[in-house]
UniProtKB/TrEMBL annotation, chains A, B:
One of its GO terms (molecular function) is DNA binding. Residues 29-48 bind DNA. The lineage of its organism: Bacteria, Bacillati, Actinomycetota, Actinomycetes, Kitasatosporales. SUPFAM superfamilies: Homeodomain-like, Tetracyclin repressor-like, C-terminal domain. This is TetR family transcriptional regulator. It comes from Streptomyces alanosinicus. The keyword Mitochondrion does not apply. Keywords: DNA-binding, Transcription, Transcription regulation. Pfam families: TetR_N. InterPro entries: Homeodomain-like_sf, HTH_TetR, Tet_transcr_reg_TetR-rel_C_sf. Residues 7-66 form the HTH tetR-type domain.
Length: 190, 190
DNA sequence: AGTGATATACACCGATCGGTTTCCTTTCGT
DNA sequence: ACGAAAGGAAACCGATCGGTGTATATCACT
């Protein structure tokens, strides 16, 4: 019994779309997606209006897991600084995986040049939420300019994930953490 | 007389490949490339072995201009810090253009998941050279850890260009410059 | 057992992909 | 003025693209 056997065809499609579009890019064919999901093309078009819609749905479905991964395990006892650093610690740990190819949402935004694409809209929303999370932490931590600090943090986040995903940088020596620490200190965040 | 009329067919192809693959992504068809260049497909395959080879050549041809754009206009009188900040000033100024879509070399690395692709190799080389340039400046500027600082700077560079290119961030208020300044200060670079 | 919904397999659509070939015109050296 | 060579237009190749139509099989429910 394969691991996908207990999932509905729709969920298997979303799973395959997320996995293959992340590994091979958004230009992956629907034929390959359906083969991977073990679902006929005909069924796919009953669940989704188009390939674009399925891609957007697959990105959206992964948002809760993505958020949970970046959230601090014990947010109550942790300081704002610890919660911010946790995000980059997770990024650094994830980046060592052989099949890490960078932040999937940033990749989608880069690959789909069209900002009106439904998947681009989902990706942009995720990025805005991350920035807003950082901003709230910066405010709680007493940063001098919370908005600026938050934008700096997403800059580092996306730069680190893109470079690690592209294979031109390694984060496992704490590069992101060190960079963020310097920025937190400079912003006067406790 | 169009602006391309005085260029050789080969140069027109390289120009069209650079422009269209930057605007539409590397998946742009050779039919469109040849139409844009005003060159027959047959001629194109006499100049280049494949679409991949032409793409790599088009990226490579733009390297000198890219370098010149980031180089300080008066490198002798400028300090290492000024030379570094000049790079990010140029990035911020370029990013306001309506047809700015991020660093083309990073985009190619993200879009072509295959690191063995000839265009990926060119792009990786460009990124390595930028990091090396930063490292040399960091050393000259007396940074505590020149290698670390250089990696932080390319992190910010790629993060800023990717986010600005994706349309999720604006750099025209000096975001990159402010971030880099904080990192230079933290590294003890004069 | 019968029925309607759901899923599959598979041929098919026009369009485009990267790449090749054929034919014809233009250009250039002599 | 002539012949070779280069270049352009377009047909053509097999493959794949996103998407549909059709006929068959499987399933739950009554």
């Amino acid at each position: 019994m394969a691991s996908t056997d207990k999932l509905s065809p729709r969920d298997r499609l979303l799973d395959a779309a997320a996995r293959l579009s992340y590994r091979d890019g958004v230009s992956v064919g629907i034929e390959a997606l359906c083969r991977e999901a073990g679902v006929s093309k005909r069924s796919m078009y009953q669940f989704f209006d188009s390939k674009d819609a399925m891609l957007a749905a697959s990105l959206e479905q992964r948002v809760p897991g993505y958020d949970a991964q970046l959230a601090h395990p014990d947010p109550r006892s942790a300081s704002p600084r610890e919660r911010v650093l946790h995000v980059f610690g997770r990024l650094e740990r994830a980046s060592v995986s052989a099949d890490y190819h960078g932040c999937p949402y940033l990749a989608v935004l880069v690959e789909l040049k069209n900002p009106e694409h439904p998947a681009s809209i989902v990706a942009r929303t995720v990025k805005e939420r991350l920035a807003e999370t950082f901003r709230a932490e910066a405010e709680r931590g007493g940063a001098r300019d919370p908005e600026l600090l938050a934008r700096q943090l997403v800059l580092v986040f996306d730069g680190a994930s893109a470079r690690a995903g592209a294979g031109v940088e390694r984060l496992d020596d704490g590069l992101a953490t060190k960079t963020v620490t310097a920025l937190l200190d400079a912003a006067g965040m406790e």
